[in-house]
Amino acid sequence: SSGINAEYGQQFLFEENNAQRMQKEIQTLEKTIKLNEAMHQRKINDRKRILDRFTWLIREKEAECEVLDCELKSQSQEVATLRAEVERLRMKTFPALVQNS
């Protein structure tokens, strides 16, 4: 009878110890999960900041391109006007050369 009680006591202590160990393991895993979630959220926020920065840079470059396009069109018109003026002056100065070419 005392052997059965001792065996039962040891079994009870083993199960209690096992339950405590499992509880600690569960707590450790839960802390790890919370840590991983926090790190993941931090990475998401970092990526969002980077994305916002690139979006802003893209808008800046698009605006720069629009300005450059306007300048290019203006310069193209100016070149066309100057070519026409050169041609007009050639005709005025050397009418015979313009007719032969």
Largest sheet descriptor: none
Helical stretch count?
2
- Unreliable residue stretches: none
The strand count comes to: 0
Oligomer: single chain
Distance between the amino and carboxyl termini? 130 Å
Looking at the structure, what is the overall shape? Answer: rod-shaped
What is the percentage of strand-forming residues?
A: under 5%
Percent helix, as a range, is over 70%
The whole-number mean of residue pLDDT values reads: 90
- SSE string: HH
Q: Helix/strand-derived class?
A: mainly alpha
Description:
This protein is an all-alpha fold and 101 residues long. Helices cover 97% and strands 0% of the residues. It has helices spanning 2-93, 95-100. The longest helix is centred in the middle third of the chain and has 92 residues, at 2-93. It starts with a helix and ends with a helix.
